[in-house]
Design brief:
- With 272 residues, the chain is an alpha/beta fold.
- It has 2 domains: 129 residues, 3-Layer(aba) Sandwich (D-Maltodextrin-Binding Protein, domain 2), CATH 3.40.190; 93 residues, 3-Layer(aba) Sandwich (D-Maltodextrin-Binding Protein, domain 2), CATH 3.40.190.
- It contains 12 helices and 11 strands.
- Strands 1, 4, 5, 6, 7, 8, 9, 10 and 11 form a 9-stranded mixed β-sheet that branches. Strands 2-3 form a two-stranded antiparallel ribbon.
- The protein is globular and about 55 Å long.
């Protein structure tokens, strides 16, 4: 009897050990199997934005892209942003960035959801964010007092001048690439003021802004001289963001139905 009882206990013990080992292996497999890890939910910018109900957009005040009329934001990028937000079913909050050069830090920190303000598709943008398809064309132009602008024929003629440039902008990059003396300004509007006040000989700004401001109002005595580069505009979302594909799909639809062309004509913006 004792032998039979000992045999039964031995069998039960073996099955218990096997069962425990099987559970342990199953848990390990779940941790080691990459396919199981893929089942874990990834963070979604789009889900987060829809949950909070607002798309937070980092900008500078920059006609004709984003500027104020009657204390309300308007402009090419403004209207395009509103159209995209409407498709997402959310509101828009525009945040004026005090330091355009820190825009990608703001994006990574989560204080804004995207950078969308006549942003040049540059290596810096591509290395620090998920950049959308391009939606408009631009160039960097030299703005000088009209009497000086008439005398400029080449980049060499610019070497004697000092230029105000928006810090962290394509204008600053172009100035450095051409060996021009450049002083950083908070934004392009401030760069223009530097010229009218005499603090700088000229400035290098976006063609889109120059077309909207130079030769008019406070800037009536200024003129566009040379064009130094050509570039394309895009929107920067966070690296890995699912908003990029969502915007690209929206942009294709907006272009195909003719709405992008109408908006470009309204604000005198070149589109590809």
């Amino acid at each position: 009897m004792k032998k039979v009882l000992a045999l039964i206990l031995a069998i039960v013990s073996v099955f218990s050990i096997l069962a425990f080992a099987g559970c342990g292996k199953s848990d390990a497999d779940k941790n080691d199997d990459p396919s199981k890890k893929d089942e874990q939910p990834a963070f979604s910018d789009m889900a987060d934005i829809k949950e909070k109900g607002t798309l937070v957009v980092g900008i500078t005040e920059y006609p004709p892209m984003n500027y104020k009329e009657n204390n309300e934001w308007t402009g090419f990028d403004t209207e395009l942003t509103y159209a995209f937000a409407e498709k997402l079913g959310v509101e828009v909050e525009f945040v004026v960035l005090a330091d355009w050069g820190a825009k990608f830090n703001e994006l990574k920190a989560g204080s804004i959801d995207c950078v969308w303000n006549g942003m040049t598709i540059s290596d810096e943008a591509l290395n620090n964010s998920s950049v959308s398809d391009s939606y408009a064309q631009n160039s960097q132009v030299v703005v000088l007092p009209a009497d000086k602008a008439a005398k400029v024929k080449s980049v060499e003629d610019l070497k004697e001048f000092t230029f105000a440039v928006e810090e962290g902008s394509a204008g600053q990059d172009v100035a450095e690439a051409n060996g021009l003396k450049a002083l950083p300004a908070q934004d392009m509007a401030k760069a223009l003021v530097e010229v009218t006040s005499g603090a700088s000989d000229g400035c290098i700004i976006d063609k889109t802004m120059a077309q909207a401001t130079v030769g008019k109002g406070s800037y009536k005595n200024l003129a566009v001289s040379l064009s130094l580069s050509t570039e394309k505009f895009g929107v920067s979302f966070r690296e890995g963001s699912d908003l990029t594909a969502e915007f690209n799909a929206f942009l294709k639809e907006y272009r195909d139905n003719g709405d992008l062309a109408k908006l470009a004509e309204k604000y005198s913006v070149e589109i590809k």
